[in-house]
Design brief:
This protein is mostly helical and 82 residues long. 72% of the residues lie in helices and 0% in strands. It starts with a helix and ends with a helix.
């Protein structure tokens, strides 16, 4: 389940056009707090906002939906390196 859910984001990241998986992880870990998550990543908050829009576009799902956020968080935790 987790690999399938995140595959499109990982494929995108593999092209070198962004770090969407790490950005999503940071944003979710900070409960959607733009400034804190952006600081963790060392990017401007507008960069992070752009990346989260790309996540929504690629996945075809809204990050405004708490069920989507929960599902993505569980997928990220399930596939996190030990």
């Amino acid at each position: 389940f987790a690999d399938g859910l995140l595959r499109a984001l990982r494929d995108h990241d593999a092209t070198g056009r962004g770090d969407l998986v790490a950005s999503l992880r940071a944003w979710l870990a900070r409960h959607g707090q733009w400034d804190a998550a952006a600081a963790d990543l060392g990017v401007h908050r507008h960069t992070l906002r752009y990346r989260m829009r790309r996540v929504e576009e690629i996945l075809g799902r809204s990050l405004d939906d708490p069920d989507v956020r929960m599902e993505l968080w569980l997928a990220l935790k399930a596939t996190a390196p030990d």
